[in-house]
Amino acid sequence: MRWILCAYLLISVALAVSADLGRYAPLINEVHSAPMGDKLLHTLFSGGLALLINCVLLGRRTGSPWAALGLGATIAAALCTLEEATNLLTPYRGAELSDLAANYLGILLLGTAPIAIYLLARRGPAPIRGA
Fold first, then answer.
1. Where are the domains of the chain?
2. How far apart are CA 52 and CA 61, in angstroms?
3. Measured between alpha carbons, how far is 121 from 10 in angstroms, rounded to an integer?
4. Residue 111 to residue 50: CA distance in whole angstroms
5. 127 or 42: whose pLDDT is higher?
6. Pick from 88, 9, 95: nearest CA to 45
């Protein structure tokens, strides 16, 4: 899983750098031209990043899985915020709060929620008190 995360990070960095230089990949250009396409990309990439980070942290099996989930979401949010801030340094891109919101939505919906649901389901039903 670590190798998948490393490959995902390298691809994400390569896409961000090419966008910073004003050279979008053809597929990304097509998605950008669609309504809300940019926000969809932000949601999917940040959610995928958070999911992979969380899987790596949970695979270590040290400490609470909930703490690992929180740490993974925090790391993903910090990386996404940093990437969005770098948009201020290039004339080809702009930093937008809506992009940042799409990043955080992806982290929550794709990177954290599926694992949280799994952890809750694994615990089983709560015991009935007073019975």
1. 2-123
2. 15
3. 33
4. 4
5. 42
6. 9
Q: How far apart are CA 3 and CA 48, in angstroms?
A: 14
| Average pLDDT score, the chain | 86
CA dihedral 71, 94, 109, 29 (to 10 degrees): -130
CA 69 to CA 90: how far, in whole Å? 33
**Distance from C-alpha of 119 to C-alpha of 54, rounded to nearest angstrom:** 12
Look up residue 42 and give its two tokens: 């932000």
Residue 8 to residues 11, 15, 66, Cα–Cα distance (Å) = 5, 11, 23
CA nearest to 118, candidates 77, 79, 69: 69
Give the whole-angstrom CA distance, residue 37 versus residue 27: 11
Q: Are 64 and 58 in contact (CB under 8 A)?
A: no
CA–CA gap between residue 122 and residue 118 (Å, rounded)? 6
> How far is Cα 76 from Cα 54, in angstroms, rounded to an integer?
9
Classified as helix, coil or strand, 63 is coil
Dump pLDDT digits (tens) for 81-108: 999 998 888 888 888 899 999 999 999 9
